Amino acid sequence: MAAFADDDDAAAIDAILNQAPSSKIPELLDEASKRGLDVRSEELAAALDEADPLREYRQQFCFPPPNHGRDAIYLCGHSLGLQPKKTKQAVLDDLQRWATYGVEGHFDQDEAPSTRWWTIEDCAEEEASRLVGAQRSEVVLMNSLTVNLHLLLSAFYRPEGTRRKILIEAHAFPSDEYAVQSCVSSRGGSEEDIIRVEGGTDELVEAINATDGLCVVLIGAVQYYSGEWFDARKLAEATHAQGALLGLDCAHAAGNVPLQLHDDGVDFACWCSYKYLNSGPGAIAGAFVHAKHDTRSLPGVLRGWWGHERSTRFEMNQEPVYRAGAAGLQLSNPPTLPMVALREAYRLHDAASIDALRAKSLKLTAYLELLIALEHPSLEIVTPRDPSRRGAQLSIKFNDGTVEGVFGRLQKAHIFADLRRPDVLRVAPAPLYNCFGDVRAFVEALTQAVHEEELGGELEFGGEAAAAQAEGLEEAFI
Ligand SMILES: *Cc1c(COP(=O)(O)O)cnc(C)c1O
Q1: For the domain that residue 155 is a member of, what is the CATH number?
Q2: Partners and quaternary state (predicted)?
Q3: Which of 336, 352, 368 delimits the end of a domain?
Q4: 37 CB less than 6 Å from ligand 1?
Q5: How far apart (Å, rounded) are the C-alpha atoms in residues 311 and 245?
Q6: Rounded CA gap, 242 and 195, in Å?
Q7: Which of 154, 228, 329, 440 is most buried (most C-beta within 10 Å)?
């Protein structure tokens, strides 16, 4: 049997390959024809899963239980990653530590040192630094994402004279936009100091080159809505040529794409750990400060006792000596229960390795792209076609006003994706726990949902779900 059925299929595939010569689609087609299977077949998905070197990791996660006999298809790792099975016990063990030792839990007891509380942030920082391409001392795990963004902007957004502008991507994640607005206004700046730029890396670089008085450039490393992965090195070069500093929000990049924050010359960065990093809702976030910046002498760093040198911290004196590197930015002693959840999740990612995850992700997302192109040629994918400019996520745009109805029907079919108004469905197969079978099942459900929507049948609880979401409730997580 041919890998695909007819001339229309061949044309749809050609259209993708013309735009993305480095796509994994030819490899998938080869595998299908070597096995004599149709690319749409369940057998191909099963064969690809069988050959997946990371397939065992799926067993280590909790999937939402079946609903009305339907298995959950979870493609929402860009929003909230699934729970590793080990997390529960780790949290219970930490509660037990508190119950057993009280305040003595801060210090070494019988367990491994990584469980003692007074140095507990060490428990995942090595894994985290490998994940984002940083030196160990450049990374600290603390707080939540927007808090870290403020702490970093406080340290690095230092407007002086006519150098006061901050450049961000247009339509940034709202929290980043709000952080920038409030940061500028709290320094006596105005709306004119914020430059918002539409487009990809080239447009951003052009705008950076054209902006006088640039102080900081702050970009989402992978754009949350479109899924575009910007070229950090090019952004850093252009930013530095203007005498400014580059910050990256890696919320959608950490655990998704291989970052090289140190080598790319990024000045500072932050990320959350609950999307691709599976550390739980509101999990402890990360922050990166490039080694070229001595945090001990940066005047804008906000201070707390946890940034103090460890060896003398408990002398409680009034003349502080701060830790070097990103660790100096810590304010408070960290909450230990979310920290042990972070440790379990980061260990899993580290064991799988970001390079192996990326290799699988390229294939998994190409498979999703291929099946959508074959089944839904009229749907627009607003994520870049070039795999080197995106991570796991595809943002599927519905130009016919049906996205709400389709989304409701997908929810009914126990599919977890998400709707971003006005018209985009975001879908991300996470390579650590998703499989080719999930992707195929999703596209099959999508075909069914689109078909039902065309027929205009009753939308049962899909309608309610869409209404609940409009009020700000994410039905997908209930
Ligand atoms: C998810 C996300 C956030 C969320 O911020 P929290 O402080 O974790 O609530 C902020 N910015 C970006 C770019 C995100 O993707």
Answers
A1: 3.40.640.10
A2: Homodimer.
A3: 352
A4: no
A5: 32
A6: 15
A7: 329
